[in-house]
Amino acid sequence: xxxxxxxxxxxxxxxxxxxxxxxxxxxxxxxxxxxxxxxxxxxxxxxxxxxxxxxxxxxxxxxxxxxxxxxxxxxxxxxxxxxxxxxxxxxxxxxxxxxxxxxxxxxxxxxxxxxxxxxxxxxxxxxxxxxxxxxxxxxxxxxxxxxxxxxxxxxxxxxxxxxxxxxxxxxxxxxxxxxxxxxxxxxxxxxxxxxxxxxxxxxxxxxxxxxxxxxxxxxxxxxxxxxxxxxxxxxxxxxxxxxxxxxxxxxxxxxxxxxxxxxxxxxxxxxxxxxxxxxxxxxxxxxx
Amino acid sequence: xxxxxxxxxxxxxxxxxxxxxxxxxxxxxxxxxxxxxxxxxxxxxxxxxxxxxxxxxxxxxxxxxxxxxxxxxxxxxxxxxxxxxxxxxxxxxxxxxxxxxxxxxxxxxxxxxxxxxxxxxxxxxxxxxxxxxxxxxxxxxxxxxxxxxxxxxxxxxxxxxxxxxxxxxxxxxxxxxxxxxxxxxxxxxxxxxxxxxxxxxxxxxxxxxxxxxxxxxxxxxxxxxxxxxxxxxxxxxxxxxxxxxxxxxxxxxxxxxxxxxxxxxxxxxxxxxxxxxxxxxxxxxxxxxxxxxxxxxxxxxxxxxxxxxxxxxxxxxxxxxxxxxxxxxxxxxxxxxxxxxxxxxxxxxxxxxxxxxxxxxxxxxxxxxxxxxxxxxxxxxxxxxxxxxxxxxxxxxxxxxxxxxxxxxxxxxxxxxxxxxxxxxxxxxxxx
Lengths: 288, 432
Description:
The structure holds 2 protein chains of 2 kinds. By secondary structure, chain A is mainly α.
């Protein structure tokens, strides 16, 4: 019994981790159709900010992660003006190349600032016993945190004026502009919001991984799979695909090996996209 | 980028056609003086009488620079130290330093460049086995001597290549012995899912059987994985007495963090032949790493006059460059063993130097005395067991004197460079 429970918790943690790592990408790709290859580096910047805040100011991890979101948003602000703005309306591949270059630059910049072996922060809150197993409290905590994060983003897009305008600008940019929506401003806000979510995600993951300049690169592949498999409803679609991919990955890893777990993630994603080329949420009525 | 760029010599010719504006003259002056400083080929040849060219290729940028930067720091330091002590055969060494940018293709390209440069007498280079296998065949074809500083799984069988780091047997034997004595007789193996992890694990199994230790589980983890929740659950189900970690790379550091977060680091000790190579003990916190047992030839905390002098000299030049792990220390040892061999041979020609290295002379460096085992081209060296202490430093707990390397390759026979393989320049692929 306790082993089943531990497996389920472990699977839920994997799903939450995937969600936390992809939500920022989902917002930027879902609303702006920009393939942000530097998403992993925004995660990394959020993680480093969190580490620095925890180590120098002694802030609690969850508060420091918000600091990570702020720094990532500020960087997003600059990046949008300098690199992304000239590319609106251009081919998808242009944004891919530009953000890929940005990713390489941010990686090397992090190496120059933090070096390659900078100290991280250990996982807070200790462990809890479930039957004869012992499980990290923080990784259990990531499950409700991911849930709250989803809820908050959902509310931003359904209950705020910005959310309404952002969805309008995404669905029909010409009409939105004709009706007086300032698309430039909305795009800038959306890019910053996505960057902030990536930074927050990195901050939340910082205590369970080794924060290094290269950490973003280990998430980018899975995050992309999740977002693409999720399809047009970028919030609930991403949630559904994170649940499917993360769940399959973890359960297969439990039953067979970690390698097959990872293979199962990509295989599931391929199968879903083979039969639903537009993603899980292609035929859903909702746009979120 | 490579630091010593005599390609610049070519710019002399181009300058003639430049129109003589003030800016052009200024630029010309800068380029000309730069080219002169950076030794144009003509200058090089003239200087060759009292200089010996040597080369290093390490990853100063890219994702492997966590290892490469310190290797290069030590390589430069070793060359400077040798020069300050009078050079080799009375000649100054000139280090050609190449940044391979963590890219395998640059290893083959720069190896080609080094190979075609007649002046280069020896090379200390590479970190991963893959990079060595990109560079070694090329260097070997051009008859260049290569010293490889990293610990590795074995299989190299090349008369022109010397392995400085300990092999799996030298490291894992003492670790398994320690685990059996101090933890119990079951071992769970977590390993990186690539060639090193598999070969190291094959040795773990073989050595465990010899020591009467039972393997209660093996799991190979792809290098990009940093979520270990399922592995940690499985370890708890298997209830091993100790864990052997053959995990590699920055993603895998998360294993130690998540293992500690689940509250297991107090109850199940971890032994590892690779932990600490990338200074993992500094990235993780003290409570996460306390008690992890590792084995290397070199530790900063070794107490010997040679090590003290080595570290003092290094810190003078590199005050903030972090811990010197085993691999960079092996770079120093490699340059000094080569120097000793050249002085014995009286020449930098490759065959006499190889024979001098094989002749069984000893060099006592920061890690203690080392002697080449001629058939395997590996060093017989001291191996130290160390435990990470509360200050994230390695506390030496046991010393194994003059541990012999293996000549065997997992599942694929053996290499004998003084006998059947004396003209060999190949890699024996381990089978597992």
